[in-house]
Amino acid sequence: MFHLPKYREPDFTQPKFTEAPDASLEEVTIKGVAPENYHSTSMYPEYFKINGKWLLAEESRMDSSVVLGKDGKLHVVENRNLELGDKVIVETARGVEIGVVRRMPRRGSISTAPVLGAPTTKTTTSSSSARAAAVRLPTPGITTASSNY
After folding, report:
1. CATH of the domain at 111
2. How many CB atoms lie within 10 A of CB 47?
3. Is residue 63 part of a domain?
4. Is the pTM for the entire model greater than 0.90?
5. Domain span at 124
């Protein structure tokens, strides 16, 4: 019988997380347009360090922006729905040391070891004002039907 594996968040007490800076934010200046080098969300759980605390973007969807709301929570917003003044997480580099963590399954493996510095789906890197990045970490207990996947 199939049992859905229990999800385990990263151990944020590890120095690589405690010493990481907060993710960087830029305000929306054109309604419906994300700032250059915005962090594009994935289908995997993503955490962002805000005011010294790692927060989970709870309602993630593909290819959207992460907005820090006035309520202090992270909201995943389609770019077309961004409002003037929304504070969007931005990136230029890759690595947990920049304040963003993406947790995803490792292909063909059930390993729980973190994969730091793995490439992300983000492609733009030209803005000097953007500072946050993402890394991918495997989700424990996830496997694929083929080791070639």
Report:
1. 2.40.420.10
2. 24
3. yes
4. no
5. 1-142
